[in-house]
Design goal:
about 190 residues, four-stranded parallel sheet, globular
Length: about 190
């Protein structure tokens, strides 16, 4: 699913990150655990094709992810969820549907399925700005899964949740990952989560 070797990222700030090798197979959940400033998000952004490495190779689904011709199809095969979900001032239904609309393939049944998987069908008509943190995270996860990604990138997705809500969201996410068979890369400071 994702394979990298000799990856090196360097920034004008002087920060650099080097990863000799990493491999995540289809259906695998791979956690990158470390303290703030260790480069976890930097590495995840490279996997999401947001940061271009200075050196090394990055393959996603057996394709050279650094070749410009491959970027759009590979980006469409992945989804990302961040610690603070970015939700627009719109209904939950429309927010979850957005990736499909952007691809010109709106499928209301797929949106309803994603809402159901994360147990937020009752929120479909609510404005995202009125959601609790737990509800916001569920909406962001539903939006990520509505396109049925083959690769899911999670950047501290549970950091701001209280323990009870976090356990519930993690339980639902595990179930959905098992159903979807997506490869998952999770970066976190929390060894328990």
């Amino acid at each position: 699913m994702i394979k990298l070797s000799g990856l090196r990222l360097a920034f004008d700030t002087g920060f650099s990150l080097a990863v000799d090798a990493l491999r995540v197979r289809e259906g695998e959940v791979f956690a990158i655990i470390g303290p703030n400033g260790a480069g976890k998000t930097t590495l995840l952004n490279a996997m999401a094709l947001l940061n271009r490495p200075a050196e090394g190779t990055l393959e996603i689904m057996g394709r050279d992810a650094l070749a410009s011709a491959n970027k759009l199809p590979l980006r469409r095969a992945m989804a990302a969820v961040f610690s603070q979900p970015y939700l627009l001032n719109d209904t939950v239904f429309n927010i979850v549907a957005l990736p499909l609309k952007l691809r010109g393939s709106m499928d209301a049944a797929a949106v309803e399925e994603a809402l159901e998987l994360f147990r937020i069908t009752h929120l479909r008509g609510r404005n995202a700005k009125t959601l609790s943190q737990g509800e916001s995270h569920r909406a962001a996860l539903a939006r990520a899964f509505v396109t049925r990604p083959r690769l899911l990138l999670l950047d501290e997705p549970f950091a701001s949740l209280d323990e009870r809500v976090k356990e519930s969201v993690i339980r639902d996410l595990r179930k959905v990952i098992k159903i979807s068979g997506a490869a998952v890369v999770l970066v976190t400071q929390d060894q328990a989560g």
